[in-house]
User: Fold these one by one.
Assistant:
Number 1:
Amino acid sequence: MENKLLRILLYFTLIVVSLTLFFWGIFTAKSFLAPLTVAALLTMVVLPVSKWLEKKSISRGLAAFFSTALILSFFVVIIGIVAWQVKNFTNEWPQIKERIDPKIEQLQAFVEDKTGISPQEQKETIFGPQQSQSVEESNNSESTTGESAQNHSSKEQEQSSATGLDGSTVKSIGEYAISFFSVFGNFILTFIYVFFFLLYRKKFTTSLMKMAPDNQQKKTKATISEIILISQNYLSGRLLLILFLAILYTTGLSISGIEQALLISVLAAVLSLMPYVGNMLGFGLAVAMAFVSGSGLNGVIGVSVTFGVAQFVESYILEPYVVGDKVNINPVFTIIVVVLGGAVWGVIGMLIAIPALGMLKVVFDRIPSLQPLGYLFGGEDIGDDQPGFFDKVIGWTKDKLTF
């Protein structure tokens, strides 16, 4: 009995130490692994395009180049649209702030009237004493430090004119430049990886084949082909689903009179990768923008109708036919991997966590020894086989439309 407990404790310790070292390793190697992982996922998305071009008697090198250029152009357009929307939001922020401040003051007065908590105490409760004090000081800096600023302004102007730029400005410019070139370099490196993955994909497949025993070559080849096919269909379907949702959200929010509808729609569509939580976050952003833009109750109703229709279309029309049910992931593990990806790799980790989990589930389902993990990561199994209301409506519609 004691030996069994010691063995269980040893296995548990080894698992904890191994997981700790694993996540510490991928966290430390983020600058190397993140572009490589993103490139592998994007390669799966554009692989059908490259194969189609090769069937048109185009060489593999040119097909890989055109496919990489296509996915690069797509992301450049998306980044340009988001940057344009963010710029517009920044330019309109003073007007938005003017509309927000009276509502915040009304809310603070309402809370004070009902609870007796002063606005200053509310700020300290939300932001903390130090941050609240710093915000208060920044708001009143002009009235409390006017004379001292005038006394020092001449000296600062002389120093800045003598050196051109002060030390803090030069340091900030340097930090921004380093960050920009780091992000830009990783961005370009990712698509270089995509090009070479497409170009040498046969070599990668052959190397995996050589690792398998001779009597397992055909089975290994069939397994690899099935994994690649299901994975690329899943990733391509998810990308198309995000595009469809962005279009639906943009149309509905624009009709509802919500400002920055395109920016909110793109964010909500990307957040839809996270089940339940992502949809609630996207809906919260849209409702907040409805109040900020002055749309009032009509805007909130429009947002609610838009997200309701979009969720119905996503769940019962787009997802079954665009994504399919071959890779159905458990919502619990979806949320876990998103949180874990954010803790390890930040925003990039959150975005690639779910596609990576989907591909892992495909691999686990095709390897007998790992099928229990594939089942664990799979969709909900709550013992309720009865169809829901919307399932009955969809089934009735299909029966009536079938001739």
Number 2:
Amino acid sequence: MDEKGRKTAVVIPVEEYEELLGDIHDLAIIAERRDESSVTFEELKKKLKRWVLMRFDEYDK
């Protein structure tokens, strides 16, 4: 505690600390990408299907 009796530290399990770090990382990525354009779920599915098909074509050669 500081001179005014306010808490200044906390003890948490390492696992919880690591989860919090992961959450902070995720939030930072969201903030960085907030101005990027988005795609609909249907568009994403189409792109993924094309990508998968292209990969399979590469293995057939």
